[in-house]
């Protein structure tokens, strides 16, 4: 299953916002509760102290049984506090003897809060007192002792609730501001943290060793002006700066190593080419010796009978041919063994095959291997480096010659054959090189492209031929595979992309 992708920036932001919101919500809950509690306590304190004050003021009139004075006192006190709903003075038997109601005392109020003997205070909440839908906090305190009487004061909660609401709203605003700052902070923080990582990630994914040279490496750094500016202001390095530095250093080393590897590969290719030249050297000597023998013969004939003008003309043209042949062979070897830059030009693959067959001509002849070329009439050019491709095909041909030789050792009646076949399929040119040599065990088919893998018995191989060939073909954007043919022997299939 394909894994879903969420950029680091959003992961960071979501995590931080989540934390800010959870923290903010817990804060709101606790702040709200504590504000409520504080105000409840304050209200209770206030109403108790008011009740106690009235109790003190009520002692004297009560002792003198001066009800009028009591009523006057309570209505005076009530006027001083707008949150006071009522004041009741009760005698020792809990009968109301003075109150602040203009009319009768509401029924539900009378026995709502009875102070038990010895109790210092009793509090109850009463709803819907009179025609007000306010909740009232009724606090009862004794006058000297319960036996003399009780003072009950009712306080509207509404006033306090308003205060509570006001304070809660202020706190809520604070939390909202905190959330806004927190969330913006979370975004900025995530941005600062993830931007360098994103730069590194983009650089890494778009990193192409081929198109990079070591000098350009230093330019890979934070491109983002905002983060760069911020870092300048803070001007203190952190792990991210170390990461960028290390990353750049790593890229620089990687590129240098890659360049070194490339040059090592080139040297390897060059020595492999020299090894191939070594292999075909005997054949080349033969290729050159034949025309030289012809030259010598012609020279002898001319010098023996210099007066025979007509036949000497014939010898001279034979000498010309011999010199041309020598020149062709020598040039072919020189060109093959020279160090060539890997430059792609349009290449006719048939031409490459011909060059290789010329280089390997003696070997093929000596091993009595016949060559069959099955080429279509029109072969489009491929984009490639002719010299490198020559090396690939020569190596394949030399391998085939060896494999055929090995098979002949046990089956001398076999007539060696190498068949070249070119096919165009869609946007690809396929070059098959088929031999009727030993072939190889199926499980070895992939391994033969590994560096230093060799099973050569006839002559010592380096085991680098096919591995270098593989790299060359890959650099051409193509592919090279080996398989055993049903009729015996091996087939090397090389695919080249065709650019239209
Ligand atoms: N046409 C073939 N038939 C059978 N075996 C082959 C053929 N081509 C290659 N191989 C096997 O693959 C091995 C690796 O080939 P490769 O060209 O890489 O190295 P090599 O030929 O052994 O050494 P060098 O190329 O240096 O002479 C060979 O040793 C051989 O065993
Ligand atoms: Mg080889």
Automatic annotation (TrEMBL):
Q: Where in the cell is it found?
A: Cell membrane
The entry's keywords: ATP-binding, Cell membrane, Kinase, Membrane, Nucleotide-binding, Phosphoprotein, Transferase, Transmembrane, Transmembrane helix, Two-component regulatory system
User: What InterPro entries does the database record attribute to this sequence?
Assistant: HATPase_C_sf, HATPase_dom, His_kinase_dom, HisK_dim/P_dom, HisK_dim/P_sf, Sensor-like_sf, Sig_transdc_His_kin-like_C
Question: Locate the Histidine kinase domain: which residues?
Answer: 283-500
Keyword Membrane carried by entry: yes
* Molecular functions (GO terms): ATP binding; phosphorelay sensor kinase activity
Q: Where are its TM segments located?
A: 12-31, 170-193
Checking SMART domains in the record gives: HATPase_c, HisKA
PANTHER family per UniProt: PEROXIDE STRESS-ACTIVATED HISTIDINE KINASE MAK3, SENSOR HISTIDINE KINASE
Stated name of the protein: Histidine kinase domain-containing protein
């Amino acid at each position: 299953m394909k894994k879903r992708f969420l950029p680091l920036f959003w992961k960071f932001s979501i995590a931080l916002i989540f934390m800010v919101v959870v923290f903010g919500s817990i804060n709101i809950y606790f702040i709200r509760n504590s504000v409520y509690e504080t105000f409840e306590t304050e209200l209770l304190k206030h109403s108790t102290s008011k009740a106690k004050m009235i109790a003190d003021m009520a002692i004297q009139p009560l002792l003198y049984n001066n009800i009028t004075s009591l009523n006057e006192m309570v209505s005076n006190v009530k006027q001083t506090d707008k949150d006071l709903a009522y004041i009741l003075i009760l005698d020792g038997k809990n009968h109301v003897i003075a109150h602040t109601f203009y009319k009768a005392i509401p029924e539900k109020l009378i026995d709502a809060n009875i102070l038990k003997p010895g109790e210092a205070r009793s509090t109850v909440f009463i709803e819907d007192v009179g025609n007000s839908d306010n909740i009232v906090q009724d606090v009862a305190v004794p006058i000297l002792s319960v036996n003399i009487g009780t003072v009950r004061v009712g306080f509207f909660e509404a006033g306090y609730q308003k205060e509570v609401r006001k304070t809660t709203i202020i706190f809520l605003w604070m939390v909202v501001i905190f959330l806004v700052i927190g969330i913006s902070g979370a975004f900025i923080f995530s941005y600062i943290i993830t931007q360098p990582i994103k730069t590194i990630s983009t650089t890494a994914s778009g990193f192409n060793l081929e198109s990079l040279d070591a000098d350009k490496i230093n330019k890979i750094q934070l491109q983002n002006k905002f983060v760069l500016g911020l870092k300048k202001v803070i001007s203190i390095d952190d792990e991210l700066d170390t990461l960028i530095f290390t990353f750049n250093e790593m890229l620089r080393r990687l590129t240098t190593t890659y360049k070194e590897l490339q040059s090592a590969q080139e040297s390897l290719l060059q020595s492999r080419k020299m090894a191939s030249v070594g292999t075909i050297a005997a054949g080349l000597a033969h290729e050159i010796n034949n025309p030289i023998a012809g030259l010598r013969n012609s020279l002898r004939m001319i010098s023996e009978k210099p007066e025979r003008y007509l036949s000497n003309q014939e010898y001279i043209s034979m000498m010309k041919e011999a010199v041309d042949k020598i020149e062709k062979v020598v040039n072919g070897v020189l060109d093959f063994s020279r160090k060539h830059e890997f430059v792609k030009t349009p290449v006719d693959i048939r031409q490459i095959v011909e060059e290789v067959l010329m280089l390997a001509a003696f070997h093929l002849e000596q091993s009595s291997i016949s060559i069959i070329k099955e080429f279509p009439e029109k072969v489009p050019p491929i984009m490639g480096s002719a010299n490198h491709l020559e090396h690939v095909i020569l190596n394949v041909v030399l391998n085939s010659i060896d494999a055929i030789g090995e098979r002949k050792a046990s089956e001398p009646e076999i007539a060696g054959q190498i068949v070249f076949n070119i096919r165009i399929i869609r946007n690809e040119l396929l070059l098959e090189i088929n031999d009727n040599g030993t072939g190889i065990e199926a499980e070895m088919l992939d391994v033969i492209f590994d560096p230093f893998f060799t099973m050569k018995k006839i002559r010592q191989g380096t085991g680098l031929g096919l591995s270098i060939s593989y790299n060359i073909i890959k650099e051409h954007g193509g592919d090279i595979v080996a398989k055993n043919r049903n009729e015996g022997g091996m087939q090397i299939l090389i695919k080249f992309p065709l650019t239209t």
